[in-house]
């Protein structure tokens, strides 16, 4: 069982532009039609038993997929935790827990719910950073797109230098993505 951060990023390390847009990513057409993407995502999601996301990510999914009007379009069949200090709209029929505060006790609940499968940290970067701060992040899987954004929502707003990440896999998907997989070496927290 691993806690994984799996996301797309620009070469210069942004998840979204300064307008919180992913147009830079969608310019490549239907992402799942890029060679290797569908197979890799299917393999990944089959191993996931629970997921977490921040409120900005949740709101982006709801808005861009028109989920409130079409709740059957909620993209996840597994239990989801949404971290927010605000009250957010609820997707009818979706298995979602709204939580706030320290990620550590929530992670313990996620581990139980995942029942031996992996936990996917969907985003955003600061939420993933909170898991890292508690030594609860095991792996980072980045689909690096061939664009630079210069500003926007940072991939992971934390300094991770000692110990450094350990590159474990590199994969090419079409002529678009370089997929980089890193093991997160745990710090020696007391």
From TrEMBL:
<dbReference type="GO" id="GO:0008703">
    <property type="term" value="F:5-amino-6-(5-phosphoribosylamino)uracil reductase activity"/>
</dbReference>
<dbReference type="InterPro" id="IPR050765">
    <property type="entry name" value="Riboflavin_Biosynth_HTPR"/>
</dbReference>
<dbReference type="InterPro" id="IPR002734">
    <property type="entry name" value="RibDG_C"/>
</dbReference>
<dbReference type="GO" id="GO:0009231">
    <property type="term" value="P:riboflavin biosynthetic process"/>
</dbReference>
<feature type="domain" description="Bacterial bifunctional deaminase-reductase C-terminal">
    <location>
        <begin position="112"/>
        <end position="175"/>
    </location>
</feature>
<protein>
    <submittedName>
        <fullName>Dihydrofolate reductase</fullName>
    </submittedName>
</protein>
<dbReference type="InterPro" id="IPR024072">
    <property type="entry name" value="DHFR-like_dom_sf"/>
</dbReference>
<dbReference type="Pfam" id="PF01872">
    <property type="entry name" value="RibD_C"/>
</dbReference>
């Amino acid at each position: 069982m691993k806690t994984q951060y799996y996301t797309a990023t620009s070469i210069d390390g942004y998840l979204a532009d300064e307008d919180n847009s992913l147009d830079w990513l969608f310019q490549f057409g239907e992402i799942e039609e890029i060679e290797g993407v569908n197979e890799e995502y299917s393999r990944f999601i089959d191993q996931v038993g629970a997921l977490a996301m921040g409120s900005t990510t949740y709101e982006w999914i709801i808005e861009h997929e028109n989920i409130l009007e079409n709740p059957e379009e909620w993209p996840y069949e597994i239990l989801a935790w949404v971290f927010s200090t605000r009250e957010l709209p609820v997707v009818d029929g979706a298995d979602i827990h709204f939580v706030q505060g320290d990620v550590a006790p929530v992670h313990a609940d996620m581990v139980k719910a995942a029942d031996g499968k992996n936990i996917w940290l969907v985003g955003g970067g600061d939420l993933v950073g909170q898991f890292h701060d508690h030594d609860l992040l095991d792996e980072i899987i980045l689909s690096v797109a061939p664009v630079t954004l210069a500003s926007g929502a940072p991939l992971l707003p934390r300094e991770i230098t000692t110990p450094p990440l350990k590159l474990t896999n590199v994969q090419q998907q079409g002529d678009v993505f370089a997929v980089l997989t890193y093991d997160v070496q745990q710090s020696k927290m007391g």
